[in-house]
Amino acid sequence: MLLVFERLESVNSALQKNSLQFTRAQLLVKAVEENIGQLRDDFSSFWADVSDEAREMDIGAPRVSKRPVQAPRRYDEGSRAHDFNSPEALYRQRFYLVIDTVHALLRTWFLREMWYHMKQVEQFVTGDTDGTYLCEFYKGDLNAAHLQLHHNMLLDIAKQRATSLVTFQDVVDFLSGKAGEPLRVLLPEVVKLLQIAMTIRVTSCSSERYFSCLQRVKTYLRSTLGQARLNHTALLHCHKEQARQVDLNLVANEFIHQTVVRENTFHVEI
After folding, report:
1. How far apart are CA 86 and CA 82, in angstroms?
2. Beta partners for 203?
3. How far is the C-alpha of 43 from the C-alpha of 41, rounded, in Å?
4. How much is the pLDDT for 205?
5. Measured between alpha carbons, how far is 217 from 243 in angstroms, rounded to an integer?
6. Which residue in 29, 114, 152, 180 has the fewest CB atoms around it within 10 Å?
């Protein structure tokens, strides 16, 4: 399991970056799929390494249960359970089961059609492709002629301002804030496309239910947690980069000064 989790953890960290490109994200997922798939061919070396470490730690060798597993009598059909002739054969089957399950879930979790669509959006707003696909896809929501015009105007303005638009986030930042307010008025079709794209889910919620940050935060604190505290904790977790920059002494001082009892009990950091 550690072999799989180590690979998935590095990809998870990369996918959670704000500046990630959709094209790069697709390549990352594809690379980890191929890498995990190749683990099937490495079981022999994996078993040898584990056996050597077990001997060094004076751990007894695993055994195969001699008691056969009987199928319930209500099942009249089907073959009887396979009897493994060695521990290596047993764990080889379990090893393959883990690898194949993770490999199949990776293909299910990330919606291929949505990844392709988001890549087309990013490549269009950054000037890498034309808008043929998007104009056809959003023909009922966006004006194709205006979208092409505003797209060309966006690239020209960015070029004049010496601003590099490499990722989807670069375009969002370019049009955000007070500096981008005139551009949002000038380029409404591009803004509408960005708004639509930012509401599209890239993965399915069902696949993230067991490993979502909300579930992990709640489990880490305790199994029962009030909604208000959970909301505050989840907010801190989602914006942990900004939260780490907060001076905890100032927060503690504000908390202490709220009541007289706390002022008499706790020390205020100056």
Report:
1. 12
2. 110
3. 6
4. 47
5. 15
6. 152
- The residue type at 253: N
Three-state secondary-structure class, residue 139: coil
Instruction: Give the CA distances from residue 127 to residues 47, 59, 122, 194, in Å, rounded to whole numbers and listed in that order.
Output: 50, 60, 9, 14
**What is the overall mean pLDDT for the chain?**
79
Collapsing DSSP states into helix, strand and coil, what is residue 196? Answer: helix
Q: Kindly state the tokens that stand for 206.
A: 């069902």
- Measure the CA–CA gap between 212 and 55, rounded to whole angstroms: 38
Using CA atoms, how far residue 259 sits from 149, 248, 262, 264, 270, in Å, is 60, 18, 6, 9, 18
How far apart CA 22 and CA 165 sit, in angstroms, is 14
Instruction: Name the region of 100 (left: φ>0; alpha: ψ -120 to 50; beta: rest).
Output: alpha
What's this model's pTM, rounded to 2 decimal places? 0.52
Coil, helix or strand at residue 10: helix
Query: Would you kindly state where each structural domain of the chain is located, as residue ranges?
Result: 2-63+85-109, 113-197, 212-265
